[in-house]
Amino acid sequence: MTDVALDVPLDGLVYRLVVAVDVEGYSKLHALDQARVQTRLSEVLDEAARRAGLDRSRWYRQLRGDGELAVLPADSDTAWVVARFTEHLAEALGELRRAGTPLRMRLAMHCGTLTSGRFGLVGDAPIVTCRLLDAHVVRRALAECGEDLVLVISERLFEDVVRTRFQDLDPDRFRPARFSTKNVSYSGYVCTGGPRGVSHGGSREGSRNT
């Protein structure tokens, strides 16, 4: 867990964007290779955030060995994060592949309620995000596609954000996915490749320092 405190008042419940990543095939690696993957993962996430104008030092992060679970600040531009962070992460992973050090990963996002607990985050948002990230249908999508990154978002995030087409988000690039875990049904949308349309002419450049 990072030393950035979750900015939630005592006994408070907040609505936030949660982002989680997980590296493919990590558990099959030897300890030395796992350490190298962790280094590359940290670097590629930092670089993607930097290119998207995002300040990861303000994110509350729980480290997961082969990934992390992050809560973004209240002032985050959700459409910007879904579009630009994902796009720049895919670009950075492509650069790693061309350098001969490929890294493949799943990326999950959801907006929902959460608060702080004695052993970490509590609430709907982190649970749904982790369920999406670990879903078999998402793992299969990454295994079967030719991309280094697969994005999965919750149905709520798709309806509230992707359908707006802000930041050139393209709903047609997402396909619905439904699955059950621990007798609970979940619905999400999976995107392989970039989540934006081919025409970026109307998009805004700059930073979202969140």
Automatic annotation (TrEMBL):
InterPro entries: A/G_cyclase (IPR001054), Nucleotide_cyclase (IPR029787). GO terms for biological process: cyclic nucleotide biosynthetic process; intracellular signal transduction. GO terms for molecular function: adenylate cyclase activity. Residues 17-133 form the Guanylate cyclase domain. It comes from the Bacteria. This is Guanylate cyclase domain-containing protein.
